[in-house]
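In the current project phase, the collection of sequences with tokenised folds has grown. One resulting record follows, to show the layout:
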Amino acid sequence: MKHRVAITGGIGSGKSYVCQLLKQQGIDIYDCDQAAKRLMHTSQQLRQELTSLIGPDTYINNVLNKAAVAQFLLTSPQNAEAINTIVHPAVANDFIQSGMEWMECAILYESGFDRLVDTVIVVTAPEDVRIRRIMHRDGIGSEKAKEWMGRQWPQEEIQRRADFEIRNDGQQPLLPQIEIILQQLKESCNKLF
């Protein structure tokens, strides 16, 4: 019996960095964002469904036309939901088929992927730290960074639902926090089996 674990957190929280640290500990992590991009390129069914939804310019020369998809996405929340209704089930199925036990998912609760896992670890950081990270990483201003953050669930809501929290505020070292969680997961899994 597998015990599936999700790493989540809002934009700029540093969840991808935490996942790198976990990978150094020998843990394979399924990246939902990368999987969605891969599947939109490789799955014939997804290609057909997205083309039916968005239009004939969804793929140009067999390559996903990101501009057309982005334009469709940003037109309305209903459009974003329509794309998610196509892509999310494909990613969920791909994760299950992968046999992997860990996933990284930025929109864990919004996508319903929390139902696929037994344990949720949220990576958090203060808002000002997140804004600085987003600005630095993407070369954007603070207003744009705040806008992006505003499109996701509030960090407090994700914290409330998660089983564990890793505080990535630049003050507390990450490895000791990770090691404590891994130890607790190991102990709770041993009790289960």
In short: The first strand starts at residue 5 and ends at 8. The longest helix spans residues 77-98. The chain has a mean pLDDT of 92.
